[in-house]
Amino acid sequence: MSARKIMIQGTGSYVGKSVVTAALCRYFHKQGLKVAPFKAQNMSNNSFVTAQGGEIGRAQAFQAQACGIEPRVEMNPILLKPGSDQGAQVVVLGKVVGVMGAKDYHQFQPQLLRMIQDCLIQLSQEHDILVIEGAGSPAEVNLRPFDIVNMRVARMAAAPVVLVGDINLGGVFAWLVGTLELLSEEERSLVKAFIINKFRGDLSLLRDGLDFLEKRTQKKVLGVLPFLKELVIAEEDSIPEAKWKTPPVQDSAKLTVQVVLLPHISNSTDLESVEFESDVALRYLARVPQDGERFPDLLIIPGSKSTMADLSYMRSTGIADYVLRCHKAGTAIAGICGGYQMLGSVLLDPLRVESSTTSMEGLNLLNCTTTFEPRKTTVQVRALSLDHKEEITGYEIHMGTTECEERPLFRVVEECGKATDRLEGAVSTDGSVWGTYVHGVFDNSLWRRRILNELRRRRGWNALPATIGNPMASGMETLASLISNHIDLTTLEQILNGEL
Fold first, then answer.
1. Helix (H, G, I), strand (E, B) or coil at 252
2. Between the CA atoms of 283, 286, 290 and 292, what dihedral angle is there, to the nearest 10 degrees?
3. Which residues are catalytic, by number?
4. Separation of alpha carbons 79 and 75, rounded Å
5. What is the CATH number of domain 4-232+474-496?
6. HSE-up (13 A, CA, CB side) for residue 210
7. Which of 164, 200, 213, 254 has CA 20 to 30 A from 80's CA?
8. Mean local confidence (pLDDT), 429-457
């Protein structure tokens, strides 16, 4: 039996397609239906490793969790990971096939269409409903010949389309009407309704605009979703500007955690669990703080899609010197994946896997040497903390190996469900600097709280108990209520059943 389908497209990027898709996934799951997400092509450096060791977009992994199912590569068969302005790493069905510029990738795309269709068929045969997400805007006329994620997928899946616009940015009616105007007649026929996202204020004041929109386009408004400032969900890609442009709030009663905002930051979701802790004030650093500002309790260098380029950026902006000054002042320093590599003494790239530079000096805070290699490691892991025996789970995504003379941080005992035994990560002799390849390490409640309590002890504060549970859980239920409280459920059912 083939699944019913609905496709979420948008008037542009960052209008809320991923959130609306996740909300629909959660709503249908709570109705007792077998539902799965699908996005043919995603461009993001926030990725996730499936249980089978395949790499997909972080947003599709989150959407799968909203469906109550394990993420699979079929849910996001193509992932583009930008490493520079000229090229991106191309991941197909979870594995890297190469680094391509735009022209090379466009020539490669026709080979991917059958694979996209096969993934759609497979997921459709196994589920009651597929919630399909587009990318960017379907009205980019210059990109229409290369579309393998918007209207071409809608036609391939015979999926009705709901178009999402962001009213918070302004001009939402022009965006919605203009998008329709730039579509072909066949494409316009696929669009069945609109969702207006991120509305603030009195909904009655919007009524004239909604009436105009429906009369002008002969399409229904499926719903108006409110602006939710505190919606707790994983970011699909970039760090919202509010997290690094807003001046920091000085709170002497909280631990201060700073995260370097790298140009090619990857898996920024690694820090969300820390940000949600009530005793933490987390800030992303886009520049060196002003003189006189207190050094943080913890400074984290996150993952990077281009480690050497981002290390050069840190040096050119003075952030690298700031990291060293923080260390000298007694700040705890941590590195995850690319950040771990930067903390070492040297980075080697003899095959020019990552950069045209074959070697670069690291920050010399850990006695480690990283050598980049063509083979990419993508594994889910279960490990034990060597010092304190907490069990942690997470995933590794990296190209290269790191050899250290420091003591290891973890003993990995399982990879993708299979028993193993290897040492991972590094800790400096005095314990003030540590690094690991494990993404999601801070999502482990007991381990996260121990790290934070060690910082609290330095301040002379009492330890706090671990917050057990996933802070995303409340966000999941909020997502479901967005649909049940703000969407015309009768019209939604008509769209799914092909009655509109």
1. coil
2. 40
3. 337, 439
4. 11
5. 3.40.50.300
6. 16
7. 164
8. 94
